[in-house]
User: What shape does this take?
Amino acid sequence: MPERTEYAPGTPSWTDLASPDIAASQQFYGSLFGWEFSEADTGDPGNPYVMVRQGGKDVAGMMKLSPEMQAGGMPPVWSTYVTVKDVEAATAKATELGGAVLSGPMDVMDAGRMSVIADPTGAVFCVWQAKGTIGAQLVNEPVSLTWNELMSPDVDAAKQFYGGLFGWKAETMQMGGDGPPYTVWMLGEAGIGGAMAPPMEGMPAFWGVYFAVADCDATVAKATSLGANALNGPMDVPEVGRMAALMDPQGAAFSVIKNAGTPT
Assistant: This one.
């Protein structure tokens, strides 16, 4: 079902955008996706957390990419959050498995508790222990989160790390039958994300996010008219859908896909 009231531990459950210009980002994504926005008080005057809503449901968030974050090397980015039972335990386990703790564990008001971690290949993600906020209340429907994908030059090392941390099983296949290897992360019987090597040598490891759309080509055309850059596609992926990679006007990469089937 697209509506969610809880997430099993080990499931990607949320994404938020760190942007140097929140107002400009709201204008871009509001125009592109029709999203609605509301501000949550963070206790930091002038720096609210922006909740993104689709049809009255929470689908994502936005926050200010501060000069301090930028000075530390953090780019404009859509981050991936994975639900866990216990942030402290997950953070300690990630360290044991070769990950690096960048921030946390820390409380996020009464919404939940989180840490920011870099896996051994350098990709950054967050772990989320829900309290008042489970994560996205709507997924897999236009225009909500539908897929999280690791780009890493060392997928084999990532398999060891995420398998040990979240219990993910890795199922690897050839894309299109004779294309590059693609790994689907399995949690039980469910495919909850993917992984592959970057298309170009030298690209750093990162977690990417996909938003479902009703029409990939129309979305790309509208995004570019609003100032985004098309990085790849639109292109068809057999039995998966039609997708494209974009960079928004503030420099954050994201992907859109018209799913061939109906993800659950």
